[in-house]
Amino acid sequence: MAQSLDALISAEQLALQLAQPNPPVVLDCRFSLQDAQAGRNAYLQQHIPSAQYADLDQQLSDPVQKGVTGRHPLPSEQRLLAAMQTWGINTEQAVVVYDQNNGAMAAARAWWLLRYAGVQQVQVLNGGLDAWIAAGQLCNTGEEAAKVTIDHANIKPSWQTDWLYDAQQIIQQQPNLLDARGIERFAGEVEPIDPIAGHIPNAQCLPFTQLVDVTGRFLPKTELKTQLEAQALDSSKPLVAYCGSGVTACHLILAYVIAGLPEPKLYAGSWSEWITDTTRPVATGR
Q1: Which of 128, 196, 222, 234 to pair with 150, CA 20 to 30 A apart?
Q2: Boundary of a domain, candidates 159, 185, 209
Q3: What is the pTM of this model?
């Protein structure tokens, strides 16, 4: 499925769209790994008008199966469809997702998942809520509900299952691998979250934080393209993005789409799933 419009939208553009008769559905995707309630609490205190909260743990992921899955398994089709119904989203509905800024958590994951389900018009607010506030736009407080009720049967998903790579495919096919984590975690020098440090052998490190500027906005398209094309990749093999749990890897994928480059596949289980099987190889070093 091709992206049918720009992957990013500015705060000014979103404000104009929200004033139109058929505005996009807006999802607030803020989340903290240190405090699972922090994102929702921040949403309740301040959010873009009409925005609903999208919970990384409860809606954008399935429950963790200890020793089997990574920390944020992809949601089942049923779980994602139930969330889309709650939000009033079908595959024809325009959607805008946002974080606090683009250096944050789950907006790129929501962008990827909704497109994975076949939603044609999904955009990420460039710079997130910070950019909205900086543009002088007003915020709401409290919970908001969907403006339109969607019948489950009318969502009509079209699952893009060929966008995914699993651990067995990585072992057998040896694709190009890009790791979105910071270089210290990639090298195995530190590991604050997962029980084993390191990276998948032959992967390259491209921290997702290098793709945004100091305000949390994505780098200009030409700069992104230059940085992404500088990666030493084997053009005869597919490109697969991963991270710690399959969330910030979507940030890399989004950057490729913004830059107008072929979209990488996603290893959704990522490092935290890879290390559940002790027979899988682990590399360290820069």
Answers
A1: 128
A2: 159
A3: 0.96
The size of the chain, in residues, is 286
Same domain, 258 and 177: yes
In this predicted model, what pLDDT tens digit does every residue of 23-41 receive, in sequence order? 999 999 999 988 999 999 9
Phi/psi-derived region of residue 210, left when phi > 0, alpha when psi is between -120 and 50, beta in every other case: alpha
Pairing, β 122-125 against β 8-9: parallel
Q: Reduced to 3 states, what is the DSSP secondary structure of residue 13?
A: helix
User: How far is residue 109 CA from its own chain's centroid?
Assistant: 2
CB-neighbour burial class of residue 265 (10 A; exposed 0-12, middle 13-18, buried 19+): buried
Give the whole-angstrom CA distance, residue 177 versus residue 159.
Answer: 23
Place of tokens 């404000």: 15
Same domain, 30 and 107: yes
Provide the β-strand partners of residue 240.
177, 265
If you write DSSP's letter for every residue of 195-259 in order, what string do you get?
SS--B-TT-EE--GGGGB-TTSPBPPHHHHHHHHHTS---TTS-EEEE-SSSSTHHHHHHHHHHT
Residue 198 contacts residue 284 (beta carbons within 8 Å): yes
Domain of residue 35, residue span: 8-159
For the stretch 45-67, pLDDT in tens is 999 999 999 999 999 999 999 99
Query: Hey, which residues are catalytic here?
Result: 243
